[in-house]
Structure formats: structure tokens, C-alpha cells
Design brief:
binds ribose-5-phosphate, single chain, alpha/beta, TIM Barrel, 272 residues, 13 helices, globular
């Protein structure tokens, strides 16, 4: 692997443990102002120091992140359809490699929609982006999105991750599922998991723990962090599971139960 690609990857995946906590705030590229991400600057700022990297579009990066902050950037470079559009899988490459270089991106992220109407187009996007990334030493994260009618099971997710790796992705994002180790074992590059829709905090931490236990190299997590009522504690707890191998209980004890917590908050945390 090219030196530049290895070097940039080491900025987003800690070389000590080969794990990473990627804070995802790119949701607006097709959802618009998602709940609790209406003012991205306000959402991002308190979380930044606990993330290994930040995943977002160039528009939010330029307007909401201080260029002097040293956070490695995973730049989303695919899109082109909104939630109101014809088909979410109809994506194209939306950002040039020159802009990714200007931004000093540590990685470029692009969605592929295996099994969807625009499968071919999105796989073609990935191949082209890998070619561009290889030219300039910028790794590519393939975001394996789920086609509307496809089950998020190990067979389908393993297929998507493997296709992404075969086309040259350096890192793959997928979802956690039963028999997740089969997904990881069949993919020759590191696999990280998305958090998905907001879950009760304890469930999201269990998801993180199980994924790491079953071979994930980290998380690309958004809503389960910044839609929590305690986002700073949540990202620290996720981080402690990914990097320090804390159990779910230990992470809750360390970050949620150390400060005074109202009985209502505790109730919410344990039962939501
Ligand atoms: C889709 O909107 C993006 O790729 C997200 O960055 C990714 O799904 C991770 O975010 P979340 O944890 O909210 O699913």
C-alpha cells in the first residue's frame, strides 16, 4: 500500500490498536437539517476532542469547523439525491479530488448501494474514486448503504463489504448484524460500523461492544452520539469501549454515573 495512503489511514485508525472512533455528521447531505444537527457547529464542537476523525461534507466542514483544529477529516464525496428525490441510491461523485486535497482530507467517503436500482452507477463511482485516491495517496471509505428491500443480514452485508473491498476500498462501513464475524472474515480491509437510528444509550453501547468483540475496527457513529441527551458522555463511553475495551457496564459507570444524575435520567438510560 502506498505510503501516503498508509499515513492518512493511521490518522483515522489509531496505529497502536488499529481502531477508530469516527464521528459522523454528514447526514444533512440527503436528509437536510436532521434533529440535533440543525446547527452543526454547535453539535460538533463539544464532541470533537473525543473523536479520532470527523466525517462530513465540504460544505459543513468549511462553515462549521475551525481550520486550525487538528481533527482528521473523512470527506463525504458522494450524493446528489435528497430524501425527497427519485431514488436515494442515485448517487454521483460530488466533490473533486482537487478539493479533497485542498481540504487536506485524510480519507474520502462514498456510498455504494449493492442490490439497488443504481448499483452499477454507485460501484462505478467507487472504482473511479479509488483510482483518483490511489493517484494522490488518499484512502477511500466505502459506505455500504442498504437497498430498501434488502435485509441487513450477514449474507447481504458480507456481499456488499466484499464487493467494496474487491473494487479497492481501503476501509468499509457497514451495519452490525447477527454472525457479524462472517462479514469481517470475508472482508480483507478493516470494517467499521454505523450506529444507525437512535437507540437507548445502553443498547447503542452494547452494539458497539458486540461489534468490537466480533472484529469491527471501530465505529462511524452519528445519531446515537449527538441525538443523546448526554452526547459528550456518550462519545466518551463509545471511545472507552473501542479503545480501552471497557465493558458496557464499565463505560456507563465511568461516564454516566460519576456525576450527579437525576433519577429520571438514569431511568431513561436504562430503559429507553
Ligand atoms: C449516512 O447518513 C451516513 O453515512 C452516516 O454517516 C452513517 O450512517 C453513520 O451515522 P449513524 O451512526 O447516524 O447511522
Amino acid at each position: 500500500m502506498d505510503w501516503g495512503i498508509k499515513n492518512r489511514l493511521s490518522r483515522i485508525m489509531n496505529p497502536q490498536d488499529r481502531k477508530g472512533v469516527m464521528l459522523a455528521v454528514d447526514h444533512g447531505y440527503f436528509l437536510g437539517p436532521t434533529e440535533r444537527l440543525e446547527d452543526p457547529k454547535k453539535t460538533i464542537e463539544p464532541l470533537l476532542k473525543y473523536a479520532d476523525s470527523l466525517m462530513l461534507t465540504r460544505g459543513i466542514l468549511r462553515t462549521c469547523v475551525d481550520p486550525e483544529s487538528n481533527i482528521p477529516i473523512v470527506l463525504r464525496v458522494s450524493g446528489g439525491t435528497s430524501i425527497l428525490g427519485e431514488d436515494l441510491s442515485k448517487e454521483t461523485i460530488t466533490t473533486s479530488i482537487e478539493d479533497a486535497i485542498r481540504i487536506n482530507a485524510s480519507c474520502m467517503a462514498l456510498s455504494i448501494f449493492v442490490g439497488s436500482k443504481y448499483e452499477h452507477q454507485t460501484l462505478n463511482n467507487l472504482s473511479k474514486l479509488v483510482d483518483e485516491g490511489e493517484k494522490y495517496g488518499i484512502p477511500v471509505l466505502a459506505v455500504t448503504a442498504v437497498g430498501k428491500d434488502m435485509a441487513r443480514d450477514a449474507r447481504y452485508l458480507a456481499l456488499s463489504c466484499r464487493v467494496a473491498a474487491e473494487l479497492g476500498a481501503h476501509l468499509v462501513k457497514t451495519y452490525y448484524c447477527e454472525n457479524f464475524e462472517k462479514v469481517v472474515d470475508a472482508c480483507p480491509v478493516p470494517v467499521i460500523i454505523a450506529g444507525g437510528k437512535k437507540l437507548p444509550e445502553k443498547e447503542a453501547l452494547s452494539l458497539t461492544f458486540n461489534a468490537i468483540r466480533d472484529g469491527a475496527s471501530g465505529v462511524d457513529m452519528g445519531r446515537n452520539i449527538w441525538q443523546s441527551d448526554r452526547p459528550v458522555e456518550m462519545i466518551q463511553a463509545v471511545r472507552s469501549i473501542v479503545h480501552d475495551r471497557l465493558t458496557v457496564e464499565q463505560s456507563i459507570n465511568s461516564f454516566f454515573l460519576t456525576k450527579s444524575i437525576t433519577s429520571n435520567e438514569l431511568e431513561t438510560l436504562n430503559t429507553r
